[in-house]
Design brief:
The complex is a heterodimer of chains A (552) and B (395). With 552 residues, chain A is of the alpha+beta class. Chain A contains 14 helices and 24 strands. Classes of the chains: A alpha+beta (552), B mainly alpha (395). The interface between A and B is large, with 71 and 71 residues.
Chain lengths: 552, 395
C-alpha cells in the first residue's frame, strides 16, 4: 500500500484527500477547490481507493450513496404502484381463479393486467423483497465504508491545522490579534462556557462539541439492519405463527399451533352506540351515520390439556383463565395473542317444530332439531315420533325430485321427515323447510309446523405468535436513538490559530445548523477580540454586509 | 350539540380569524422595508407573531374543549385530524419563528394553515363516538405524534417555497416557473373546493340516486353538489335536479369525481379572476416579498425543519403506528395503503437527507424536494383516505 506522507510528517493511507493530522489538501483536486469538502473529513474510504477485484466492485457498488438513494426511490415508486388497486390480501375472494376473476370483473382490463403482472401481490413478490435485501446490504456496506475511517480521523485530528485547511473552511476570518496573549485564555474560557471541549497548544486552539452526533447516522443504520434481520427471521419456522379460527358460541376448539390450548366461546357481544346512553354530544353523528358499533367482544375461557392426556382427549381440560377478547385487547398467554378480528351473527343453531293435527289443530308436542348434530329420531312420548329421513343444511331446491344442499353450513336448513302418531301408525312423509312444506306422498293428516329458530354468533379470531418482536423493537429503538442523535445534536468545531505573520486566523465547521455555530463564534469573538469572519458560502449575506457598510 | 362543543367551535373560528389578521401583519412586516433588520419590520413582525400566538392558544382551546366534550382526543375523523394538523403547522411555524426570527415565513406558513383548516371544515364536523378499532390510547399517541412530525416537515416546504419564489427567474419561460405557478394554482383549487362546497351547502343542494356498485349491488347515494358525473347505472330519485353529464364505470365514485370537478371549476374561475386583477402570475406578485429572504437562511431552515421533523415523524407515523397495529389488527405491518404511504413519505425524506448530505443537493434542488415532500404528505392525508379505500378510511 502506498501511504501518502504529508508535509507535516503525518502518514496517511492511500486515497486520503485531507491530511488526517493537519488538514492540508493532499490531492490536486482538493487544492483547487475554494472550500474543502468536509464530508467524512476527507479520509480514505475503501470504496474510493480500490477498484480491482470483483469484491472491490461489489463493495463499491453497495457503498455508493447514489445506489442507496436509487434503491430508496425505486422501492418508493414500487410501493406506490402497489396502492393503486387493493392487494390480494384485501380482496374478498380466495383461490387463484376467483381472485383473477375478481380483478377482471371489478377493475376491467386494467385490473386483469394488474393481476397478471403480479402487482396485486407486489409486496410479497421476489423482486420487491430483493430490492429490500439490496437496500439492507447497501446500509451495511455504505456505513462500514464511512464510519471506520471517519472514526480514525476524528480521533487523530491535531489542534493546529494548516492554513490551507483553515482558509478553505466555509466560515473563515483573518485579522490582527488585538488582545495579545489574553485572546487565548479568553477564547478558551468562553468556549468552555459554551460546553466545548478545548484543546490548546502554543498559538492554537481547537474547540469541539457534539462529536458523538457524527455517529448518529451509523447507529440509526444499525437499528434498521437489526429491524430487517428481525423481519427475515419470521420466515423461519417457529418464529412466527399466524392462524385464524372461527368459533361458535358454546363451542370449545383447539387453538391452532399452540401446545394443547383450547378455547371456549361463552358469548359473542356486538354493541352499538345508543343515543340516550352515548351522550348528547354524539347525537348528530349518530343521526347522520345511523348505527355506530361500540364494541366487538368474545367472552372466552382458555383451557389447557393436562400433560398426561392422550392425544385427542378433551374431557379433562384445565381452566387457565376467563377473559374478554375485544378489539385492541387481545387475549395473551405464553407468547401467543388471540385477537378479535371478525364475526358472523345469527348462524342457525336449532329449529323448533310443532307436530299438530291439520284438521283439529291439536298439538302432539314440540321438537327441537340441533342443526349441527341432528338426531335420527325424536320421540314425543305419547306414542308419536318424528324420524329424520334426510337433512339438507343449505337447501337449494330440488333436482330430479331430490332435495339438494349447497353446503354443509346451516344457512337454509330443510328436512325430510317421517311423522308417526297413534292415529297414523304407518307414518306420513313430509318435506319441511323454513316457511315451506311439501307433502310428496299425498295429503297428510299431521303436519310439522315451524315455530322458531335458535341462533348463535361466530367469532373470527386470529392467533398470533411473533418471537421476533423484541428484535424489531430493539431495531426500532436503536434507530430512534441514532436518528435523534444525528438530528438534534451537531458536531461543531472552532479553530483559532496564529499565522506565521503573527496574525489570527479563525475557522469554524459544523455538520449541520450553521446558525448556531455562528452564534457560538460570535460569542467568542466578542470576548476574545477575534477577527471578523465571513460565511464563504453565503454570498448574499456578505453582499448585504457590504451594502450596509456603504449606506451607513 | 352541548355547550362545550359549541364553545369549542367558536374558539376554532376565533383562531381562524387571528391567523388571517396575523398574515396581514406579516405582510406589513415584509413589505416596504429595505434591510432585513429595520425597525418597522420588527414592530409589524412582533404584532404578527403575538396575534399568531393568540390564535394558536384559542386553537389549542378548541382542541382541549373538544377533547373534554368528546371524551377522546379530537383526531378521530378527517375534520378533526386535518384541523389538528393545521393547528400544528401554526405551532411549528411559531417554533421556527423563535429559532430564526423570520416574519417572512409567517407570510407563507399562515395562509397554508388557513387553507388546511378551511379545507378541514368542509367535512362533517359533528363529534362522533369511537368505533371499536379506535378505542385505544394509541389513537392519541400515534395520531398526534404523526401529525406533529408532518407539520414540522411542512415548515421545510414553506421555506422551500420562499426560496423558489425568490430565486426562480419569473421573467423567462421555464419549467421551474411553470411548476411554481402550478403549486400556487393547486392552493387556489383547494380554496375552490372550499368555495364550491360552501356555496352548495348554503343553497342546501341535495340530489339522490340509486346506482349499481362494483359488487353489482344496488345502493343509494346523495350528492350535495350538482351531479356533473353520475354513478354507474344511476337512476335519479330527486326530481328537479340536474341530469349528470356523463355516467362513470362502477369503480369510479362519481360523487367524489364531481366534487373534484367543481373544485377545479371554482378554482380555475378564481384563478382567472386573480390573474385578471393582478395581470401576472401569482408567484410574480409574491416574488418582491420573497426577495427579502436570505436564500442561505431559507435553505438552512428547510433543512433544519426536516432534521427536527423526521425523527418525530418516524416515531409517530411508523413506530407508534406499528405498535398500535400489532395491538389492534394483530400485525405490526399489513401493507394497508395508509401504511404504505407513510413508508413512502419516510423513504422520501430519507432520500432527501442522503441527497443533501452526500450529493450536495442544496439550494433550489433541496427546495423542490421539500415542496414535493409536502405534496406527498397531503396526498397521504387526503387522497389515501378519499380515493384508496383501506383500513384508515374513517371519514
Amino acid at each position: 500500500m502506498n501511504n501518502i506522507i504529508c508535509v507535516c510528517g503525518h502518514e496517511n493511507p492511500e486515497g486520503t484527500v485531507l491530511c488526517g493530522s493537519c488538514g492540508r489538501p493532499l490531492t490536486e483536486e482538493a487544492e483547487n477547490q475554494k472550500l474543502v469538502d468536509m464530508r467524512y473529513e476527507g479520509t480514505a474510504r475503501r470504496s474510493q481507493t480500490f477498484n480491482k477485484s470483483i469484491v472491490d466492485k461489489i463493495w463499491n457498488f453497495f457503498s455508493s450513496v447514489k445506489i442507496g438513494v436509487s434503491l430508496i426511490i425505486i422501492i418508493l415508486v414500487a410501493a406506490a404502484i402497489g396502492t393503486i388497486l387493493p392487494q390480494v390480501l384485501y380482496v374478498p375472494a380466495t383461490g387463484a381463479e376467483d381472485i383473477a376473476a375478481y380483478y377482471e370483473r371489478v377493475y376491467g382490463t386494467f385490473g386483469k393486467l394488474y393481476y397478471e403482472l403480479g402487482l396485486s401481490d407486489l409486496y410479497g413478490s421476489w423482486w420487491f423483497q430483493t430490492l429490500i435485501g439490496m437496500l439492507g446490504i447497501s446500509l451495511i456496506v455504505a456505513s462500514l465504508d464511512r464510519v471506520i475511517p471517519l472514526y480514525k480521523s476524528l480521533k487523530k485530528q491535531r489542534t493546529r491545522r494548516h492554513e490551507s485547511f483553515m482558509k478553505r473552511q466555509r466560515i473563515f476570518g483573518l485579522g490582527e490579534n488585538q488582545l495579545g496573549e489574553d485572546t487565548w485564555t479568553k477564547s478558551e474560557e468562553k468556549l468552555k462556557e459554551l460546553h466545548y471541549h478545548v484543546k490548546r497548544e502554543d498559538g492554537a486552539i481547537l474547540g469541539e462539541k457534539g462529536r458523538f452526533s457524527r455517529w448518529g447516522p451509523y447507529i440509526n443504520h444499525l437499528g434498521l439492519i437489526i429491524f430487517l434481520f428481525g423481519v427475515m427471521l419470521r420466515a423461519l419456522p417457529g418464529f412466527y405463527v399466524d392462524e385464524t379460527m372461527w368459533i361458535r358460541e358454546g363451542e370449545t376448539r383447539a387453538i391452532p399451533e399452540t401446545p394443547g390450548y383450547y378455547l371456549k366461546s361463552e358469548e359473542f357481544i356486538l354493541e352499538t352506540y345508543d343515543k340516550e346512553q352515548a351522550g348528547e354530544v354524539f347525537e348528530e353523528a349518530i343521526d347522520r351515520v345511523g348505527t355506530i358499533a361500540s364494541n366487538y367482544q368474545t367472552d372466552v375461557v382458555l383451557y389447557k390439556k393436562p400433560e398426561d392426556a392422550l392425544p385427542g382427549q378433551t374431557d379433562k381440560l384445565e381452566e387457565v383463565k376467563k377473559d374478554s377478547i375485544q378489539v385492541n385487547h387481545p387475549l395473551k398467554f405464553e407468547g401467543f395473542s388471540v385477537f378479535q378480528m371478525d364475526f358472523r351473527l345469527d348462524e342457525l343453531r336449532a329449529m323448533h317444530f310443532n307436530l299438530s293435527n291439520k284438521a283439529s289443530g291439536e298439538s302432539l308436542g314440540e321438537i327441537s332439531i340441533d342443526l349441527v348434530d341432528p338426531e335420527k329420531s325424536y320421540d314425543l312420548g305419547n306414542g308419536s315420533k318424528v324420524e329424520l329421513l334426510g337433512y339438507y343444511p343449505d337447501f337449494s331446491g330440488f333436482e330430479n325430485g331430490e332435495p339438494q344442499t349447497k353446503s354443509p353450513v346451516p344457512n337454509n336448513p330443510a328436512f325430510l321427515v317421517k311423522m308417526t302418531t297413534p292415529e297414523t301408525p304407518d307414518g306420513e312423509t313430509s318435506f319441511v323447510a323454513i316457511k315451506q312444506t311439501v307433502e310428496p306422498l299425498g295429503d297428510n293428516a299431521y303436519k310439522l309446523e315451524f315455530q322458531n329458530v335458535e341462533t348463535r354468533d361466530i367469532s373470527g379470531l386470529t392467533v398470533r405468535k411473533d418471537k421476533t418482536l423484541w428484535i424489531l423493537a430493539l431495531g426500532g429503538l436503536i434507530f430512534m436513538i441514532g436518528v435523534a442523535q444525528g438530528s438534534y445534536w451537531n458536531h461543531r468545531r472552532i479553530w483559532i490559530h496564529e499565522t506565521k505573520e503573527g496574525r489570527l486566523a479563525v475557522a469554524a465547521h459544523t455538520n449541520k445548523n450553521w446558525l448556531s455555530v455562528k452564534k457560538d463564534l460570535d460569542a467568542v469573538t466578542e470576548v476574545a477580540g477575534l477577527p471578523p469572519y465571513t460565511d464563504q458560502h453565503d454570498l448574499e449575506a456578505s453582499e448585504e454586509k457590504k451594502d450596509g457598510e456603504k449606506s451607513s | 350539540m352541548t355547550q362545550l362543543a359549541s364553545i369549542s367551535s367558536n374558539l376554532l373560528f376565533v383562531s381562524f380569524v387571528c391567523y388571517l389578521v396575523a398574515t396581514l401583519f406579516f405582510g406589513g412586516a415584509v413589505k416596504g422595508t429595505k434591510t432585513e433588520s429595520s425597525t418597522s419590520e420588527k414592530r409589524w413582525g412582533r404584532i404578527g407573531i403575538i396575534i399568531t400566538i393568540v390564535g394558536f392558544i384559542t386553537n389549542l382551546g378548541y382542541f382541549v374543549t373538544r377533547w373534554i366534550a368528546a371524551g377522546h382526543a379530537p383526531v378521530s375523523n378527517l375534520f378533526e385530524f386535518t384541523t389538528a394538523f393545521g393547528m400544528m403547522v401554526v405551532g411549528s411555524f411559531i417554533l421556527i419563528y423563535f429559532l430564526y426570527k423570520t416574519p417572512l415565513l409567517g407570510l407563507f406558513a399562515l395562509p397554508i394553515a388557513i387553507v388546511i383548516i378551511g379545507f378541514a371544515s368542509m367535512f362533517p364536523t359533528d363529534i362522533n363516538p369511537l368505533i371499536p378499532a379506535l378505542k385505544s390510547y394509541w389513537l392519541t399517541v400515534h395520531v398526534i405524534t404523526a401529525a406533529l412530525g408532518e407539520s414540522i416537515l411542512a415548515m421545510s416546504a414553506v421555506a422551500g417555497l420562499i426560496y423558489l419564489t425568490k430565486n426562480i427567474d419569473l421573467t423567462k419561460k421555464s419549467k421551474q416557473r411553470f411548476w411554481l405557478e402550478a403549486v400556487m394554482f393547486t392552493l387556489v383549487v383547494v380554496i375552490g373546493f372550499v368555495a364550491s362546497t360552501t356555496t352548495f351547502k348554503v343553497m342546501d343542494y341535495e340530489a339522490s340516486f340509486n346506482y349499481v356498485d362494483k359488487e353489482e349491488q344496488t345502493a343509494e347515494i346523495t350528492y350535495n353538489v350538482p351531479p356533473l358525473f353520475g354513478m354507474n347505472e344511476y337512476e335519479a330519485l330527486t326530481p328537479g335536479t340536474m341530469t349528470p353529464l356523463a355516467e362513470t364505470p362502477p369503480i369510479v365514485n362519481a360523487k367524489k369525481l364531481t366534487t373534484v370537478a367543481w373544485s377545479f371549476i371554482f378554482g380555475s374561475v378564481l384563478y382567472g379572476l386573480i390573474r385578471l386583477i393582478i395581470r401576472k402570475p401569482i408567484a410574480a406578485v409574491l416574488q418582491p416579498l420573497a426577495k427579502k429572504a436570505n436564500s442561505q437562511l431559507m435553505d438552512e431552515i428547510g433543512y433544519r425543519a426536516v432534521l427536527i421533523g423526521f425523527p418525530v415523524f418516524t416515531l409517530g407515523a411508523l413506530i407508534f403506528a406499528m405498535i398500535w397495529a400489532h395491538e389492534a389488527w394483530s400485525r405490526f405491518w399489513g401493507w394497508d395503503p395508509k401504511e404504505v404511504w407513510a413508508l413512502i413519505t419516510w423513504l422520501f425524506y430519507a432520500a432527501f437527507l442522503h441527497l443533501r448530505l452526500s450529493k450536495g443537493w442544496q439550494g433550489e434542488k433541496s427546495a423542490w424536494l421539500a415542496v414535493i415532500g409536502f405534496i406527498i404528505i397531503m396526498f397521504n392525508l387526503i387522497a389515501v383516505n378519499l380515493i384508496l379505500a383501506g383500513l384508515h378510511s374513517y371519514a
